[in-house]
Amino acid sequence: MAEAKLRYGVVTGANKGIGFETVKELASNGVKVVLTARDEKRGLEAIERLKESGLSDLVIFHQLDVTDSASIASLVDFVKNQFGKLDILVNNAGITGVNLDEYEMGSTINWKELGQTCEMAEKCLTTNYYGAKKTTEAFLPLLQLSNSPRIVNVSSQSGLLKNIANEWAKGVLDDAENLTEERIDEVLKEFIKDFKEGSLENKGWPTFVSAYVVSKAAMNSYTRIIAKKQPNMCINSVCPGFVKTDINRNTGILSVDQGAASVVRLALLPHGSPSGLFYIRQELSSFSTHPRKRTLELTISSLDELREDWKPALKNLYVAVRADSITSYATGTAEDCGGNSSWNETLVVEVPAHARSVTLEVKCRNSPGVKDVGVARIAVTDFLSGAAAGSDECERKKAKVGALLIYKKGSSLLLIDATLSLKTAISYHLPSCCIMGEEAKRYAVVTGANKGIGFGMCEKLASSGIVVVLTARDEKRGLKAVEKLKEFGLSDFIVFHQLDVNDPASVATLADFIKTQFGKLDILVNNAAVTGGKLLDGDALLRKRNGEQIDWSEVGYQTYELAEQCVETNFYGVERVTEALVPLLQLSISPRIINISSRAGLLKNIPNEWARRMFSDIENLTREKIDGVLKEFQKDFKEGSLENKGWPAFASAYTMSKAALNAYTRVMAKKYPHFHINSVCPGFVKTDMNNNTGQLSIDEGTQTPLMLALMPNSVPSGCFFNQGEVIPF
User: What are phi and psi of 524, to 5 degrees?
Assistant: First the structure.
């Protein structure tokens, strides 16, 4: 049975560098890998190094010269006879097409002055493009026998079409609908002809590492063609980054581990993942250069001298910039304003290039008594008129917004002034052929979302242009919540799906729905939770929170059955949903997981020293250790020894489930370093869970979770946020 489930891979050019590390990582993931190299001696030496790492049973060598048809055929026969199929093909073999002989390892390379001949260029095309193409076509019959075939073409950013000035070649390679292998051949033949004639520069071809650039552009184009021909396969190109390898005399920035990680990620994508795309390391990119976003610079300042009592209010400042249906966030601080001087802050945000209006909203987090009473809306049409689509430069423009907001704190007023500037840089979006004719959308799932904070998160995310799957255990209540959001004009951004986080079948159905409908997931908000007890007196709870000496028995009660349900929902339910959706989150450019937690789960609230020590040992913390603590807690609860064993006396299961959730957040953040995974306490919010005795509104409660969902990639991971601030676990 184990043998039947074994996956088989082939990596070309694998005796060193990215290829070698890719073999190592695939084998470490249980894939049996054929390490190939042109030089048999070097290939066998590489195998010996891998065997020293304990991978003897999962690595095997076979000689391969990708420019030799007989060598390719011999390898295919070997794989067919040994394994009967192939699951993963990594086309990694490649050369630069230039002369690097005069450069030693680690020495600075002047790429523009490297010697290149027509013979070198032809060899480069034969290896980098035709070698990968021949190897792929030879293995297609064996790949078709796999349940989940993968082809990963190791390419380069240099092969992006923006690096080729020749308009005819660029037009051919960018015409995805009419692109064929024959048309790629035409481009390559024209390139070689112009190379021989010494007319590279005149004809708009790259003038240095010319063949390498053109070969990688051809490789990217071939990726799109073969992905279209083989719809049941997952075939993608990836630029692993500027990695320290022999090909650049170890002058790269990234380690081979970092470079190989991007390749291995695509090789191990789940079945049904997107195909025919180009990735730069972990991020989905464009084969071409279509403008998507403009970068705006916002300068905000106080119009009058800044009063001393305003300093605390401006320590945690953020600006929400809403352009059409997209909301961006930028953060700043007025902490160093000093004295009674005026204050200003410059923040940078991105908006879609097609945006016609922008709403600016300045917020001061954690500032009791401060409220905004005005919002300004300005047009940015004039900004965009100064830059042609696709250009890399545009005229810098400014617009004085004037008095943007008035903040009120007691009888004190603060007037905020804003100036909006269009910066010169623009970024680029994916061409329509990659994303079915529309701009890339973001998709989110919110659990327990028919009311309260979950409902508020759905409204805020949908208002930011994100397609949100609102989930609820009760289908009737969930559909009613969706209808309410549709009344707010969010019909295009809200969809309902039933979800019981405690039911594996329900979770699996949701995952299948997202995979089928959207093909990926960008944001997961784990909000579904129960208290683990029964609240008898909401007023008593409020007085208890405010420090009155009230016995917990007057506030509510808890039973073992309720505690068991609480742990199952608040921790194991979150884990179940997260694990099911991780494969879809891995397909996102910027995956986010926001676990709605509570300050009740802070370790200071757990008297049991053993449990506290287990959860605080982040270096050795594992999912199994979290499970062990919860099982011990439940055993002691069942035996009636909570107090004797040092467990929380009231809301025991709720406290422990949230502490476990916080620990799980740290474990997952460590396991998935490219995700942004955080726990957040939204504050004491008025919800059904506390009989609406909370102090914050739903809008206030959603502020920090929304910030974590929409903030740029600089947001930290594996942290605990409390109302906008990171605090210790």
Answer: -120, 120
Q: Which residues are catalytic?
A: 212
Reported pTM: 0.49
CA neighbor of 189 nearest in space, from 130, 142, 114:
130
How far is the C-alpha of 527 from the C-alpha of 456, rounded, in Å?
11
pLDDT tens track for 316-373 = 455 555 544 444 445 544 444 443 344 455 555 555 444 444 555 555 444 444 444 3
Burial 381-393 (b: 16+ CB within 10 A, else e): eebbeebeeeeee
Strands 278-280 and 31-37: unpaired
Distance CA(177)–CA(187), nearest Å, equals 17
- Better-scored residue on pLDDT, 368 or 18: 18
Q: What is the pLDDT of residue 291?
A: 37
CATH number of 443-727: 3.40.50.720
Contacts of residue 102, Cβ cutoff 8 Å, sequence gap at least 6 = none
Which residues are bridge partners to 471 per DSSP?
A: 497
CA–CA dist 211, 221 (Å, integer):
15
Same fold, 2-284 and 291-429: no
Give the 3-state secondary structure of residue 31: strand
- SS3 of residue 456 by DSSP: helix
322 in Cβ contact with 358 (< 8 Å): yes
Q: Which fold has domain 291-429?
A: Immunoglobulin-like (2.60.40)
CATH class of 2-284: alpha beta
Q: What is the pLDDT of residues 174-192, one digit of tens each?
A: 888 888 999 999 999 999 9
Q: Kindly list the domain boundaries of the chain, sorted by start residue.
A: 2-284, 291-429, 443-727
